[in-house]
Amino acid sequence: MQEYRSAALAGLLLSAGLALGSLFLPRPVAAWDVERVQEAAAQYGPRTLAAARQLMQLVERLGGQDEVQRLRALNDFFNQRIAFREDMQVWGKVDYWASPLELLDKGQGDCEDYAIAKYFSLLATGMAESRLRLVYVRALLDGRPQAHMVLAYYAQPDAEPLILDNLQPELKPASARPDLAPVFSFNSEGLWQGVGATSAGSAVARLSIWREALAKIRAEGF
Amino acid sequence: MSLIRQVWVLLLALMLAALLGSAAVSALSMRQLLQTQLQLKNNDNAAALALAMSQQGGDAQLMELLVSAQFDTGYYQSVIWRRADGSVAFERSAAARASTAPAWFVALTPIEAPAGTAKVSSGWQAAGSVEVRSQAAYAHDELWAASLRMTALLAALGLLAAGAAHLALRRIRRPLDNAVAQAQALVQGQYTLVDEPGVPELARLAQAMNTMVARVRQMFEAQAEQLEVLRRQAHCDALTGLSQRKHFLAELESALNRDDGPARGGLVLLRLRDLELLNQRLGRAVVDQVLGALGHAIKVYPERVKGCLAGRLNGADFALWLPAPDVARDTAQALSDALQASLPGFGSGIQVALGAVELPRERPMSDWFGAADAALARAEARSGFAVEALALAAEASVQGERAWRTQITDAILAGHGRLQEYPLLDKQGQVVHLECPLQLRLEPEAGYEAAARWLPLAQRSRLTAEVDLHATVLALEAIARDGRPRCINVAPASLLDGGFVARLREQVFQAPQAARKLGLELAEGAALQHFELLQEMGRQLRPLGVKLGLEHAGPGLSQVERLYQAGLDYVKLDAAVVVGVSGDAARAAFVRGMVIMLRSLALKVYAEGVVDPLDVQALWDCELDGVTGPWATAQPV
Description:
Chain A is α+β, with helices and mostly antiparallel strands. Helices cover 45% and strands 16% of the residues of chain A. In chain A, helix 3 packs antiparallel against helix 4 (67-81) and helix 4 crosses helix 7. The radius of gyration of chain A is 21 Å and the shape is globular. In chain B, helix 13 (464-482) packs parallel to helix 15 (500-510).
């Protein structure tokens, strides 16, 4: 009798505990976890691991330098290393947002893959999220309008941004890019509220393609 | 705590745990779902608003208007537009609405949906961000309502489950109760059978118990059979099967002295003429056949009429006592006619003489035999099949039945009854209880009269129930006064009165203390003829402490088929059985056999009507529990 009662009580407490536990997951911390990145890169293969090590060395070197130099170095790092390809060719999908490691692994990607890889690498150098924005732009390429994405850097909140783009690999101020018309911008600021750092399986973490990519990238240590 | 109650508590505890557990889990998972949906709404609406604001070319007025429009058409707690430096550019907010759910529920299931944020830009210009926070109260309302529905549903399910459990438990409980009742009845010396239930474990239990009861029954039947053999040896004439002289006289003595006989009776003596001559002429074997035929003709009467006694007094003499008035002559004539037709078959010259006499029952035995011998002598003086009858004039006071009825009823109403007290002593001389026959004063001036005088009339007037209830009241009063155990006689006829047992029970119920010392005894015939009624009476009264016994018990007892199920406390052996045990080993053996059989049924055994101190000693040797009668009454207490 006593045993049955305590077993039933334990079951009740267990189920209640499981349900309550999900309320108190740890809050995410935006950080660059070198070991995790290496670990994740190692799973793609030695070539990717080598590329990731180069990125890590670069990021480490850039840590003390001024921000424009960091922008230029990382802009060049990805623009030189990665070949532009449509998602359909690389991933077999209409639209796919790759993580920096996936990009390094494939060695090719489309505009948002460049922007994302640059964004997270810059964050890894210790740059503030609020200074960077991913921007949807309408680009005129050979006179034809095209949907495109670039990374914009704002030294001050209301300053003119510097544009990191793969179409024109040089770092330029926005005013020097008449071919780009900005439509909408976003970054990861504030998006981590209420979402676990490693909860790639969480429903909220996958509410949008951006959040899904975020969750994936965080899981790889960025 | 009883077994069934323990099972119930266990079931309820499990059910409650399951119901509460599932209610809690479902409420918590629903809470999680609602929280996710709320956050999704915040995020999406923030993104949509930011997208729209980013297209306004930096017109602050238009952007504020968009914020207001979003806030007014939706269900928001706040919509805030912050500049890039974090300061508030425009804000619309409402107080957080209180939920209709109780506060404790809200506290127990917090729903925290973080505000959704999105960046606003104007061309390349960063224009800050928007923060959208929805009202969470409706989620709690929904959660509360759903939890209530869930609880109601689960409670209904719980009730259904409890109902099913109740039915299942009852299915187990019934056979269990039966088995327990059977076991308790065993302790009280009642051997009952129960139906085998469907539950296998209980079925085996019931089987085992039934088997044991069957075995006890076999043992009992074997004992009864053996006893019957002993009885024949002790009491019966080997040739004719009729009572032998000694036993017939004891039986007749008992019949003449008991309370519940008829006022008048008849005695027929039958003698085979010229026994010696017949022996010489026909040979002993033929004469034995003749005597057997005579016995057979006479035995018909005691077999058919209750209370009728028949015996072989000596070689050629037979006696038949009839417990009814006005039948002696006719019976003698009928016997004579029957024998006249059958006896010549054995040879010529076989003739009988019959003498019949009718007397009031209270006359001593010597009067009976004196008168009957005189009649027989007159018949013998004649030749052939001769019948002579002698009837003394009936006594003068023959009242109408109605007058008797009135007298008895009046005597009871007026309380003109009293109990006599005769002790029943055990071996140590201690009073076991007092036998208390009722006396009634039927006529105001006259004295109290014994039951022998009015009981036959009460029986005929169907007043025995009233009389017995009156005796019970008197006995309970007397017990309450001096605390001595008493027992009273109950007429078997009273059992036939439908309300008798219920009224008796009511009386006994009002004096619970005295009831524990009250004994009720019925003549053996009650167990033979009204077994079910007797059993029911025991079921009603014995739980209240009342003892139930049989009196005047004799050979009939072994014919009570289910004595082991009767539910009795004691048996009093009739004087006809116990008188004369001191001088007769066969009679003593029969009494001892009776005692052993009755003891095995957990009954006490007493002897009635004991006169001779030698008999008393012999009865103690037979292991009786007590004796009553003239000897006991004469002992100094």
